[in-house]
Amino acid sequence: MKKVILKIAGMSCSACSAGLEKYLNKQEGVKEANVNLVLAQAYITYDDTKLKISDLDRFVEEAGFKSLGLYDERKEKKSKSHKPILIVMSFLVIIFLYLSMGHMLKIPTPNFINRHTHALNYTLILFILTIPFLIYGFDIFKSGFKNMIHRMPNMDTLVLLGVSASFIYSVVSMILIMSGHTMYVDNLYFESCVMIIYFIKLGRYIDNNSKEKTKDAIKELVQITPDKALLKTSTSSKEVTLDMVNKGDILIAKPGMRIACDGVITKGNTHLDLSFITGESKPAKKEVNDKIMAGSINYDGYIEYRAEQIGRDSTISHIVHLVMEATGTKAPIQRLADKASSYFVPMVIILAFLSLIINLLLGHPFATALQVMVTVLVVACPCALGLATPLAMVISEGDSAKKGILVKNSAALEKASQVSTIVFDKTGTLTYGHLKISKIYNYSDYTINEIISMVASIEDMSSHPIKEAFKDYVQTNHLMYSEVTNFTNMTGIGLKATYKGHEVYVGSDRLLELNNISDKHSSDADELQEDMNTIVYVIVDGKVTALIGVKDVVRHETKDVISKLLKLKKEVIMLTGDNKKTAQKVASNIGLNKVIANVMPADKTDVIKKLTSDGKMVMMVGDGINDAPALASATIGVSLNSGTDIALDSADIILMHSDLNDIINLIKASKKTIRNIKQNLFWAFFYNICMIPMAMGLFTFTGIELNPMMGAVAMTLSSLTVVFNALRLRYLLNK
Asked: How do residues 138-189 score in pLDDT, each as one tens digit?
């Protein structure tokens, strides 16, 4: 299976995106398709053994839209401005209103176009002025017609029907006027055609400008990586575009320059500003053989580095794509709007024609019945429904990414505000994971250094983070590693290996039971546990040789974050493989009273499943490697950034700064986003519930009536209400 993001042209409302999404999902070989109206993109997972990109482009064309090819964040440009033509059309609208409605406002008009004395001149001028607007709105009519043909009617279809009915009726009246029946001058609706098109275009112009603002956070991420790089040549260096850089090329970064791609330093040393990824304001020291990331700012030194991951393969590009894919996923709350939108347009068409028929049956003039039908068609606003959720999600996910909270799917962002239980892994999550050897009890003839060399050699073959404590000790004391054979990793218990002809076990106190050894050193173990050490038992040839205390440091923000979560009425649990005594000591120091200890990695998943089966919404926070199955089993899996492995498939959300405070920020952002979406949906539904009956004439008895022009104005205002309320979220998220 392969994932791609296609840029789509021709979508104007939620009915468009919903129709395209439905059509794509019906195609053989397409596993899943999500269409984002705000970003005008389709996120497609497909079987690349059955389909090619050209097939996906063809499906989009068949659905009545246009594929603009694969999304490339480096080539993404701002939409072309339609301001000049809008200004020209605004001038024509003023002229049109002056001619068609000036008599109502007692504004003097030239006699030769007086609607009563020179009806034909008046009619022909209005007709001629209407033509530019029909041309201006041709894209709307084309979209409406194509979607009607494909049985996926959208808002453009409603406009097409409304404007066509008004224009055709006006043309028929014009022909009758040309035949001498000047009384039909009162049956002209050219102004309805003009005003409907103008206000929709005006609304879309404002709407598109507002949508561009929703993409600002994503654009800022893209712009972190420079467009050019300094390539080292055989004689000196030359500036090249990023497209000209190949893997293995040697690039140069002088002080103040941004790193162009992920790579490895081959010459020199410097300090790099990595705040865009780590959130750490202090520059990090980098020297030969250190890895560096695209977008980092070279602070003070001259370095040469070998290009490793370029363009789409770079870390920052990967982050941008994860954000883009997240905006393509749909939160559960959006399903409501999508379902409503799928029925909305057909229902409006039915109501419009029912209004026409009922008015005719009641004996109203055809002109009056037609006006009611056109008003119903243009006042309905599926756009507001379609924009309510994705606009807020794009803003929230982009803003979160800027702050180092990488949301991989919209559903996780929605659920973050609903979680009742938060489960933390201990090592590497509540603690820094930087283990140090704090104390050693030696019960053998070996020296301390010999014991450490032996254990370090065995631990070096494992992937457990505890090996770093021994590695650090070896490097600090200039010790040597020795050859290890017959290595076995006993998950959740420890390690077994042959070292210099001796059978050696390294691990937890479970090794005592495994080797039928009585515990003669419990007092020493208790002392280590009291000091919050993880105890490493060293058993050589069936005898306990040493107890090694390894201590981790609790993150400086842990206690404060736990306190805040408890104030938010969240159940907080620490999940660890440590023994109960050590775990409870750590928990007591950080203000936690719920601990599940002695849990093997495989059993962590069972704990999470048990909590979720009890009806709890569970957020699992882990280091993203050892906790992968548990992260995948939770309602929301949150992973701390693990350096190179930034995009673990098991996590729904990645905390790029590895700061637990971002858990609080995530919950707050989720609450604000969902509140904003609910407001948007309320206004969208409220508008349509009020305006459609009003357009149908159900409130005529109160003196409230709508005409097509006012219907177009109201429809435009409803969309803008939702757009501006969504944009307000940017302010709320940074409040």
From this structure: 888 887 787 787 777 777 787 788 888 888 888 988 998 898 888 888 778 7
DSSP designation for 646:
-
Count Cβ atoms within 10 A of the Cβ of residue 475 and give its class: 0-12 exposed, 13-18 middle, 19 or more buried.
exposed
CA angle 695, 698, 701 (to 5 degrees): 115
Q: Is 47 in contact with 29 (CB distance < 8 Å)?
A: yes
Q: Sheet of 66-70: strands edge to edge?
A: 30-36, 41-46, 2-9, 66-70
Dump strand ranges (E) for 552-655. 571-575, 595-596, 618-622, 636-640, 653-655
- Name all domains of the chain by residue range, CATH numbers in brackets: 2-71 (3.30.70.100), 83-216+323-393+677-733 (no CATH), 226-313 (2.70.150.10), 402-426+555-666 (3.40.50.1000), 436-551 (3.40.1110.10)
Count other C-beta atoms under 10 Å from residue 130's C-beta.
25
Q: Which DSSP string corresponds to 418-481? A: T--EEEEEIIIIIB----EEEEEEE-SSS-HHHHHHHHHHHHTTS--TTHHHHHHHHHHTT---
Tens-digit pLDDT profile for residues 215-225: 565 666 666 77
Which residues are known catalytic residues?
Answer: 425
* Secondary structure, 3-state, 666-723: HHHHHHHHHHHHHHHHHHHHHHHHHHHHHHCCCCHHHCCCCCHHHHHHHHHHHHHHHH
